[in-house]
Amino acid sequence: MTPNKKGMARVRFLALKSVIAEELEQGYNRSDVFQKHHDALQMSYSQFTRHVRKFILGLSS
């Protein structure tokens, strides 16, 4: 596997943002959503939760 260019994990997350947001709205927990999309996202769980907070929940930090 070749290393990712900086920012590509964010691009992959944003491409799936609406799907992830809908699954979270339906009641799936973050861990299950992360596991479902892990291969496509290619990021750590901690980075995934930061992106959920920033891009879906609209929280800073």
Q: What brief labels describe this structure?
A:
61 residues; mainly alpha
Provide a compact summary of the structure.
The protein is mainly α and 61 residues long.
Structure write-up:
This protein starts with 7 loop residues before the first helix and ends in a 5-residue tail after the last helix. 67% of the residues lie in helices and 0% in strands. The chain has one domain (8-56). The chain contains 4 helices and no strands. It has 61 residues and is mainly α. The protein is globular, with a radius of gyration of 11 Å.
Strand and helix map with partners:
Blueprint: H1 8-15, H2 17-25, H3 30-41, H4 45-56
Pfam families: DUF5338
Count of discrete structural domains: 1
Unreliably modeled segments: none
Terminal Cα separation, in Å? 30 Å
**How do the helices and strands follow one another from N- to C-terminus?**
HHHH
Largest sheet: none
Structural class by sheet pairing and helices: mainly alpha
- Report the C-alpha radius of gyration, rounded: 11 Å
**Tally of DSSP β-strands:** 0
DSSP helix count?
A: 4
**Coarse shape:** globular
Mean pLDDT: 91
Beta fraction: under 5%
Helix content: 55-70%
